[in-house]
Each structure stands twice: as C-alpha cells, then as structure tokens.
Amino acid sequence: MARRVLVTGGAGYIGSHTVLQLLREGFYVVVVDNLDNSSEVAVQRVAELAGGFGKNLAFHRIDIQDKEALEKVFHTTKFDAVIHFAGLKAVGESVQKPLLYYKNNIIGTITLLEVMAAHGCKKLVFSSSATVYGWPKHLPCTEESPLHAMNPYGRTKLMIEEICRDVHHADNDWKIMLLRYFNPVGAHPSGHIGEDPRGIPNNLMPFIQQVAVGRRPSLTIFGTDYSTKDGTGVRDYIHVVDLADGHIAALKKFFDDPTTGCEAYNLGTGKGTSVFEMVTAFEKASGKKIPLILTARRPGDAETLYAGTAKAEKELKWKAKYGIEEMCRDQWNWAIKNPWGYGLPEPPN
Ligand code: NAD
Ligand code: UD1
Fold first, then answer.
1. Most C-beta atoms within 10 A of its C-beta, which of 142, 199, 273, 276?
2. Is the distance from CB of 28 to CB of 4 less than 8 angstroms?
3. What ligand 1 atom has the least distance to the C-alpha of 196?
C-alpha cells in the first residue's frame, strides 16, 4: 500500500513542488493549508501534472492552529510521516508583527506535534532555513556552525528546531529531519507551478521576474560595497525541484534507516552566486534587460552564505543537480506562462 504523507503548507511554493514529486514517487498525499499565502489553483495544477497519480492527492483548507480540524484529518487517515512547510516567512513583516509570527509558526507547530503524538505518527520533516546561521564567520556553513537568528522569523525557525530536539530527547520514537534550505528559486520545468508572492516580493528572484515581465520598473540592489567578487551579496541558490527531491530523500531515510534520530541537514548546492551574477543569468535566460537601482545594504543582510553539502550527500544520498542557468530558464518559463502568478492582473493605480 502507498505510504501516506501529510503535507502542511502544501499549496505554497516549495510545498506544491514537493507534493508533485511525492505523488510521482507513489505516495498518497494529504495537503492542509489555510491559503494565507497561496492559492488552491496550485493544488489543482499539481494534481493535473501528476497525471494518473493525481487521484492520490487530497486537500483541506485548514489552519494548523485549529487542533479540532487537524484531529479530524488524522482520524480519517493514518499517516506514515508529516512534512511541515506551513508558516509565515517574510522577514520584514516578522519584525513589524512578531506576535503574529511566534503565534502562527510556533503555536502552529506545537499543535501539529501534539496531534501527531496523539495519533502515533512520529516522523516529521521540518522546513528550517539557512537563516538560523545568521551572518556566519566561517564558510561554508555546516550543520555544526554556530546558530544565531537575527529577526523574529529566524527565531521561530531556531525555536522550532529546539522544540524538535527536545521532543526527540524526551521520546526517542520521534524521528525528525530539520532541513535548512538555502535560497530556493526557479519553478517546475512545465511552467505550470512556481512562486507567486503576494504584494511586493521580498526576495531577489521573484523581484527580478516581476521586472522582466513588466510588472515593476526596476530592481533595487541592496549593497554594492560588500567584500565579495563584485561587491554584491552572495547566496546559495537552489532549484526548487532539487529542494523538493531533498524531501523525498529525507522520507526514504526515515523508512530505510531505523537509527534516524533528530538531525539537521543543509539543502543547498555549495556554490555562491552574487546578485549581479544572478541578474546577468536572468537577462540571458529571458532576453530582457533588467534596469537596476544601486542602493544601500538591506539591514540584517549577511554578506555571503553558502552551504556545506557533505552531510546531506552522505546521509540522505541527495545532491542538487541543477545550476543557475536551469534555475533562471525555469523561472522565466513560469513567468511568461503566468505573468500574474495564479491570480488576475492587479488593477491599475
Ligand atoms: P509559502 O508561503 O509559499 O508556503 C507556506 C504555506 O503555508 C502557504 O501556502 C501558507 O498559506 C501556508 N500557511 C502558513 N501558515 C499556515 C497555517 N497556520 N496553517 C496552514 N497553512 C499555513 O512559502 P515557501 O517558500 O513555500 O516556504 C515553505 C516553508 O519553507 C516555510 O516554512 C518557510 O519558512 C520555509 N523556508 C522558505 C524559504 C524560501 O526562501 N522560500 C527558505 C527557507 C525556509
Ligand atoms: C532572505 C531572508 C532570510 C530568508 C531568505 C529565504 C532577509 C534579511 N533575509 O534572505 O531570512 O531565509 O530570504 O526566504 O530578508 N536583494 C537585492 N534586491 C532585492 C532583493 C534582494 O539586492 O530586491 C539581494 C539581497 O541583499 C541578498 C540577495 O539579493 O544579497 C538575496 O536576497 P533574498 O532573496 O532576499 O534572500 P536572503 O537575503 O538570502
């Protein structure tokens, strides 16, 4: 019988790509999402892209803080594992509304863990972030690097990691993977699912994309005076399909390796790319010129961040396959097919 996986936040950017890979691998998937930052259209498209496997997907519009609603889902399906993406992720907003972030991300996770425990489901994959490394002194960041969150969003990730470590410490039956994503970009090569941020994008790639399709006039570059190859910030961009496959690898380890405990893994490529390099690669992929405004550093930004990938390669037997060229190609393909994401054009001002 197919293994059954609950995916919280499965309508979102990384979640939708992961659900598709799960279906294609033969898993039965139940998505719970409150659609706070996503669209049900993404779930429908995933079902279509999965072809015959699409029938193995169910969706419930649920807030994970709603314990009663979660209980109902666990009553109807016995899950083998949970992948937990649901959370708010805008750093700036988390500084303005810390309580919203602590409540949604931390209370939501505790509620989920309580319901999982009550139903004897003790395998969890959690979406952590490279943000837990703060501004690292030594590169690449390995899973042993010091942890230091710099804003409420980052602190929710760090606190949830700690909660997971404590839960596993108290009860060894829990198997937990803390996956620390570096910078997910790109889209499914079909161009039917991708990232669709609400409002003004916070992150580099969605912003570049919106400039390229004419939704915004220019890209503002935050800082050109870093001690990097060209003065702009350096990050480890990872294709979202590679990232999705990292979750399949994590699940396989749960099912194949009985010694799994509570472990953190970096999911990145190990390569650093500057903002200027990313802009050039996107211009090449799209054939569009991206007008630039050079401005001061964004507060709280690290200079350079990239992953040590040895642990994930060795223990998850997973390695990113795609490079910057494919990331830009697939992001552009999604952009031209869906210039307004899953929604309709914004009304003129
Ligand atoms: P996303 O916003 O596209 O997806 C998150 C999903 O969770 C959304 O569909 C949202 O509606 C849902 N959600 C939020 N709160 C919920 C709640 N209380 N109940 C039910 N659903 C809820 O974001 P994403 O980029 O796909 O990120 C997924 C996860 O990965 C998040 O936890 C995020 O913090 C983490 N992460 C993302 C990045 C990134 O750059 N995208 C990097 C590192 C970590
Ligand atoms: C941001 C978050 C981080 C989160 C990560 C992935 C902040 C301070 N950090 O990190 O917590 O884990 O996203 O969601 O928000 N840039 C520009 N112009 C832009 C946007 C970005 O020049 O309009 C630059 C940034 O300064 C940085 C690089 O592009 O050097 C990447 O930025 P971004 O995509 O926001 O990711 P992170 O800064 O890594």
1. 273
2. yes
3. 3
Q: In the prediction, which pLDDT does 261 show?
A: 97
Respond yes or no on whether the N-terminal peptide bond of residue 140 is cis (omega within 30° of 0): yes
Pocket residue to mutate for ligand 1, from 16, 18, 33, most atoms within 8 A of Cβ: 33
Taking residues 74-92, report their average pLDDT. Answer: 97
Q: In this predicted structure, what is the pLDDT of residue 345? A: 67
Largest CA distance in the chain: 58
State if residue 226 touches ligand 2 by the CB under 6 angstroms criterion. Answer: no
d(CA 205, CA 225): 21
Cα separation of the two ends of the chain: 54
Catalytic residue at 153?
Answer: yes
Atom of ligand 2 nearest to the CA of 89: 14
Position in ligand 1 atom list of the atom nearest CA 14 = 26
Peptide bond between residue 197 and the one before it cis (omega within 30 degrees of 0): no
pTM of the model: 0.97
Q: What is the mean pLDDT of residues 294-300?
A: 95
Instruction: Output the six-digit token pair for 66.
Output: 């709603």
| 22-38 residues labelled b (16+ CB within 10 A) or e (exposed) | bbebebbbbbbbbeebb
CB 318, CB 270: distance < 8 Å: no
For 58, half-sphere exposure in the C-beta direction (CA atoms, 13 angstrom radius) is 12
Would the CA dihedral through 294, 295, 300, 302 be positive or negative? positive
> Cβ of 98: how many Cβ atoms within 10 Å?
15
In angstroms, rounded to a whole number, what is the distance separating the alpha carbons of residues 247 and 251? 6
| Strand ranges in 34-156 using DSSP code E only, listed in sequence order | 57-61, 81-84, 123-129
pLDDT for residue 109 is more than 70: yes
Both tokens of residue 102?
């602590």
Burial class (CB in 10 A: 0-12, 13-18, 19+), 143: middle
Euclidean distance between CA atoms 41 and 17, whole angstroms:
13
Q: What is the mean pLDDT of residues 92-117?
A: 97
